[in-house]
Amino acid sequence: MNITVVAVGKLKEKYLREGINEYSKRLSAYCKLQVVEVADEKAPEVLSEVEMEQVKRKEGERILAQLKPDQYVIALAIEGQMWSSEKLASELDRLATYGKSQVAFVIGGSLGLSPEVLKRADVLLSFSKMTFPHQLVRLILLEQVYRAYRINRGEPYHK
After folding, report:
1. Where does S-adenosyl-L-methionine bind (predicted)?
2. The domain spanning residue 67 has which CATH number?
3. Average model confidence (pLDDT) for the chain?
């Protein structure tokens, strides 16, 4: 299976880069992983509603440019469905079984995803009702994908 993570912004924190590198290395035994960073839109700290939509639209265009027509897209959005680790594992297994070997996870910027990206998504997934820094979500996502592969292979992984 080919897993692509399309994420807005560059990772700045060393500890996040190290964690992502570790899970990327672990995942190499299970899938082909690609992490694609798209530029975040520079904006002032305080934005009007119109300005927020403009930022999301511009970031959304960059995200959509990275998605292939045959990819199954899972967008991370706070309004999405909340799955257990086992549900993520079963969904990845189901996709592989039915020939959907190109899966893209999308992580928006600090303002979230544009309506166009949400529309392109096959499913919206939420990790929590809480708000997380979008850079931290990358690490959480890779850990959960790794956990899903371990679950699907019946390999031990702490609960």
Report:
1. 76, 108, 127-132
2. 3.40.1280.10
3. 94
